[in-house]
Amino acid sequence: MILTKTYRIWITAGKWLLAIIGFAFIYKQVFLNSEYELLRSNFLNYYTLSNILYFFIPAVLLVAVNWGVESYKWKYIIKPLENIHMLQALKGVLAGVATGFFTPNRVGEFGGRILYLNHADKISSSISTIAGSFAQLIATVMFGCFAMAAYNIDLHLTNYYITALLFFVAIILISCLLLLYYNFSKLADLFSLRLYLPRFYDKFSHLKNANAVYLSKIMWLSIFRYFTFCIQYILLLYFFQVNISIEHAFVCVSLIYLLHTAIPTVAIIEAGVRGAGALAVIGPYTHQPTEILLAAYTLWIINIILPSLLGLFLIARINIKN
Q1: Rounded to whole angstroms, how far apart are CA atoms 301 and 60?
Q2: Which of 41, 173, 305, 315 is least enclosed, having the fewest CB within 10 Å?
Q3: What pLDDT sits at residue 73?
Q4: When comparing pLDDT for 157 and 165, which is higher?
């Protein structure tokens, strides 16, 4: 559908309104809170050449790896619907980070991504995007559950039988999630029964081609991305000189990401939640609350805030044709 002049005016106004509101929220959340003051007043205390070279710069460079992998994954996911180039996929992902900024656990990311699709059906594309998000969820839950068991054993939080029960429940949960994921194509068959929402059957029909090879590649990309932002977090912990071993750091970071997934938050209040979660999980290993908060807040800025700003800029400039 070609947009009329009136609709174009409304869409342009909406894009700029979203961008202005987004920039205002980000400014408020970044510069007008205690975490920013904490970072501003303490950052230079950790500014040494070796710290910057070995920890901070690699963590920042991994931002490009993180969102680059996510862009390639999304490009691969929607290839059956529309073949887009990598730059277009990257712009869509960044726009999605911006739109997801205002929704719980960033579930609204697909809204920004579909702005960069020219021919693919928007509903079908959103459904495919959800499949990619589900793969990322499975990676987070899988490693997070194992981390929870290791954390529990290491700190002797419960007895052997409770730990064994938790581990068993985690295995069942992960198995169910994988079973559901690898039967994603069955959704098309479900709608083919024409029992529920039959008019949306065509929107799911492309899922019939989602075979095990296709889904496995998405899963491996999700796992690779998971390890990328785990490494980022650990690098920042070491940049701020948090005294924790690499093994304990990985367990704690995996558990923190699991908590973030389990607790619905919006990015505009996420900094506080991230800080509280990090303190609760890492605190038993080292009494360094300032350093732990600095690592969590810095990761939030480089992984979410900076891409969101770029995404808002892209949304304001995009030319929506249909």
Answers
A1: 10
A2: 41
A3: 95
A4: 165
What would the DSSP string read from start to end of 250-294?
HHHHHHHHHHHHHS---GGGHHHHHHHHHHHHHTTT---HHHHHH
Strand ranges for 86-228 from DSSP E: none
Q: What angle do CA 175, 178, 180 make, to 5 degrees?
A: 110
Q: Any idea where the domains of the chain sit in the sequence?
A: 5-317
Predicted TM-score (pTM) above 0.70: yes
Per-residue model confidence as pLDDT tens digits over 21-57: 666 766 666 666 666 666 666 777 777 888 889 999 9
Question: Using one digit for the tens of pLDDT, what is the confidence trace for 185-238?
Answer: 776 666 555 555 556 666 666 677 778 898 999 999 999 999 999 999 999 999
Whole-number Å distance between alpha carbons of 228 and 30: 24
Q: How many CA atoms lie within 13 A of 72 on its CB side?
A: 13
